[in-house]
């Protein structure tokens, strides 16, 4: 038996609770992992609260991030005792995830725990942080360099936003944070934001084009915010879009793309090919200051993850939440 969060949906309704789970119920997979830590991402918030159709099979153990130790492996790439990390691949959505003391996974989903990080630091970064790095890498790939101008980061006090600010600032970019939480101004400045703008400046319907400002952008909000950012991005600037915290729609026009040559890049972490993941983790080892990671992170016990998921959906959680599944 092991302890885990189980999401059930039946005639009694949609609910998440901590339960004792029999090992025999673990799903198919060639590697069994003793989980040390998981985390709470926006997607885990949707899964645990049922606020979004993230979970595709019931019952489901949520948790899209895992850091742990291999207990048993039929995969030639892994042996008992190996320290591993997992992000995405549908884990916590279609395959039982990390908010439990044990997980059975497919070896090809795993990456070795990066040498630069402890298991706890790896989940503190988690999917949110690794996605932030994918956004930074996409900006670089499209030629955006420190010194080119301001980079705007939306949803700044959330998980993706916090790590994006810390990484961009360390790389020498000038970062402008967009947040709905003025009380987090000191936190955002501590991470490296040069300026903070209230999110209301971006959330209403805007014009097809506005005054040019951004050399690049990391957007986690979508909807009017993403449209307004595209409309105010400088000639040949680059916008990365990875989230929908403000809505899934994109009420924009083609004007920024055909008149200013703006590039809009979609960023997906879930199915991102393994070689790019390895590069992202290697880059995080170099370009994320672990002292800032400590500022970004707080820890909760397994049972606390359920109420904390509801707070995350209400926009009340700052930075990243690590879950100690053995506590
Ligand atoms: P968090 O909940 O940690 O952060 C989201 C932040 O967005 C909030 O902290 C808040 O920032 C802002 N926000 C919330 N609601 C609204 C709103 N209605 N309008 C404007 N801003 C809002 O989530 P994560 O950082 O984990 O994820 C952010 C987004 O990125 C999510 O949509 C998630 O699904 C997506 N994502 C996508 C991935 C991919 O592979 N494409 C991977 C990881 C995440 P503030 O209070 O500062 O305004």
Explain what you see.
This protein has 327 residues and is an alpha/beta fold. The protein has 10 helices and 15 strands. The protein has helices at residues 42-49, 119-141, 159-171, 185-191, 200-203, 223-231, 255-259, 274-287, 290-296, 305-313, and strands spanning 2-10, 13-21, 31-40, 65-73, 83-87, 102-105, 111-112, 150-153, 174-179, 193-198, 214-219, 233-241, 263-266, 297-301, 320-324. The strands form 3 sheets. Strands 3, 4, 5, 6, 7, 14 and 15 form a 7-stranded mixed β-sheet that branches. It has a 6-stranded parallel β-sheet with strand order 10-9-8-11-12-13, sandwiched between helices. The mean pLDDT is 97. NADPH dihydro-nicotinamide-adenine-dinucleotide phosphate (NDP) binds next to helix 1, helix 2 and helix 3.
Jot down its keywords.
7-stranded mixed β-sheet, 327 residues, 28% strand, binds NADPH dihydro-nicotinamide-adenine-dinucleotide phosphate, 15 strands, alpha/beta
């Amino acid at each position: 038996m092991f302890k885990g969060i189980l999401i059930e949906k039946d005639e009694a309704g949609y609910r998440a609770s901590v339960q004792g789970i029999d090992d025999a119920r673990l799903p198919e997979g060639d590697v069994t992992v003793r989980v040390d830590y998981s985390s709470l991402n926006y997607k885990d918030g949707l899964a645990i609260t049922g606020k979004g159709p993230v979970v595709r099979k019931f019952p489901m153990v949520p948790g899209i991030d895992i850091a742990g130790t291999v207990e048993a492996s039929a995969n030639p790439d892994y042996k008992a005792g190996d320290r591993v990390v997992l992000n995405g691949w549908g884990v916590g959505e279609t395959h039982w995830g990390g908010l439990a003391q044990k997980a059975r996974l497919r070896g090809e989903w795993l990456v070795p725990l990066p040498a630069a990080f402890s298991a706890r630091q790896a989940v503190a970064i988690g999917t949110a942080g690794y996605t932030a790095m994918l956004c930074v890498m996409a900006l670089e790939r499209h030629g955006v360099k420190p010194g080119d101008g301001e980079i705007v980061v939306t949803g700044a006090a959330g998980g993706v936003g916090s790590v994006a600010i810390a990484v961009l600032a360390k790389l020498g970019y000038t970062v402008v944070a967009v947040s709905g939480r003025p009380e987090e101004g000191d936190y955002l400045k501590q991470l490296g934001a040069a300026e903070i703008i209230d999110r209301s400046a971006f959330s209403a319907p805007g014009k097809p084009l506005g005054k040019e400002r951004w050399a690049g952008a990391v957007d986690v909000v979508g909807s009017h915010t993403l449209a307004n950012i595209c409309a105010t991005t400088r000639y040949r600037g680059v916008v990365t879009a990875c989230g929908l915290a403000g809505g899934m729609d994109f009420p924009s026009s083609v004007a920024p793309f055909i008149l200013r040559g703006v590039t809009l890049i979609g960023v997906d972490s879930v199915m991102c090919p393994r070689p790019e993941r390895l590069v992202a983790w290697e880059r995080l080892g170099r370009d994320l200051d672990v002292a800032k990671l400590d500022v970004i992170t707080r820890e909760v016990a397994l049972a606390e993850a359920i109420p904390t998921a509801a707070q995350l959906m209400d926009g009340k959680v700052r930075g990243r939440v690590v879950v100690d599944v053995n506590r």
